[in-house]
Design goal:
This protein is of the alpha/beta class. It has a single domain, classed as Alpha-Beta Barrel (TIM Barrel). The protein contains 11 helices and 10 strands. Helix 8 runs antiparallel to helix 11.
Length: 331
């Protein structure tokens, strides 16, 4: 029988989420890759329990995470039932709907039919009566925005979600979505964009500034750019890397161009000068970004999680270092 580490809250810093009463750990655990049936269940359980034992209270999922789709939720549901049930109220669990989950016209997008059906399926896989946070995973231009937002509102009113969030929304629909939710008495809690040293999309388009103005927290994902910011690709492509796999559309060999290699090596040199690894520099950049509540991380093995946890209490990078980073990447 699992008994949680009694010192688990001594390891972690917790940040206020926007203007809400919620706090999230400095790093949160994402289940996008490696937490479905593509990984050994015992390895998944080991990483999840180790995370909780070291103060990570937020687990982030989506309906289609894992291979096959939904298996990440199923695996977490099993862990919740077998190990973490006594600690449910110490956990903050999120899921999402928006991308393709099942065949036919009702298995994708932002319709009320899809959003609420998907949430019911997620709750069944997780074995929970509610999630703490339910996101619209993407903006669907073919569905009226009010329809998608009212589905989120009703998820809260039905007691199936305590909070709602928005992910991957461009700035204009993001602004409209926030207004619709607030007009129906639901304050959106979090915005989840892809954001990193190399990917400034959410800042350049004004989304992050908008969220700070409107009182939303920000929880960036893909903060290491699919591994580019871990120092793994400074010279060539390792055979066991994600880039070497032919089944990974998010990081292809064609992406590793000469100008990118130059930037990566400059960043690595800066990290060395500061006495840090490149991975630490990348995550510290997120920790020190105004408005960020938590950094969402993904791992494939326990040693990676242990490394990332070791960076949660190291000295934060200075404004001068951030300025040097911006100079290197042309911001």
């Amino acid at each position: 029988m699992y008994i949680a580490n009694p010192d688990r809250y001594h390891y972690m810093t917790y940040n206020r989420v926007g203007r809400s009463g919620v706090k999230l750990p400095r790093i949160s655990l994402g289940f996008w890759h490696n937490f479905g049936d593509e990984n050994d269940f015992e390895s998944v359980k080991e990483m999840v329990l180790y995370a909780f034992d070291h103060g990570i209270t937020h687990f982030d999922l989506a309906n289609n995470y894992g291979l096959p789709d939904g298996s990440a939720e199923t695996n977490l549901g099993r862990i919740l039932n077998e190990e973490l049930a006594p600690y449910r109220d110490e956990l903050f669990i999120s899921t999402k709907a928006g991308y393709t989950m099942w065949a036919g016209p009702y298995g994708d997008g932002g319709s009320r039919k899809y959003m609420l059906s998907s949430l019911d399926q997620s709750l069944k896989r997780l074995g929970l009566p509610y999630v703490d946070l339910f996101y619209s995973h993407r903006y669907d231009s073919e569905t009226p925005l009010e329809e998608t937002m009212l589905a989120l509102v009703d998820a809260v009113k039905q007691g199936k979600a305590l909070y709602v969030g928005l992910s991957n929304y461009p700035t204009e629909p993001l602004s409209k979505a926030i207004k619709i939710l607030k007009s129906h008495g639901v304050e959106p809690l979090l915005f989840q964009p892809h954001y990193s040293i190399l990917d400034q999309w959410a800042k350049d388009n004004g989304s992050m500034e908008l969220c700070q103005k409107e009182g939303l927290g920000i929880i960036p994902y893909s903060i290491f750019n699919q591994g580019l910011l871990t120092g793994k690709y400074l010279k060539d492509i390792p055979e066991d890397s994600r880039m070497a796999r032919s089944d990974n559309p998010f990081l292809t060999k064609e992406a590793l161009k000469e100008n990118l290699l130059v930037k990566l090596n400059k960043l690595n040199d800066l990290a060395k000068r500061e006495g840090r690894t490149m991975t630490e520099l990348a995550i510290q950049y997120i920790f020190t970004e105004p408005g960020v509540s938590s950094a969402l991380v993904g791992v494939s093995r326990l040693s990676q999680l242990q490394e990332l946890l070791s960076y949660t209490n190291t000295k934060l990078i200075s404004d001068k270092v951030r300025e040097e980073i911006h100079s290197m990447i042309g911001v």
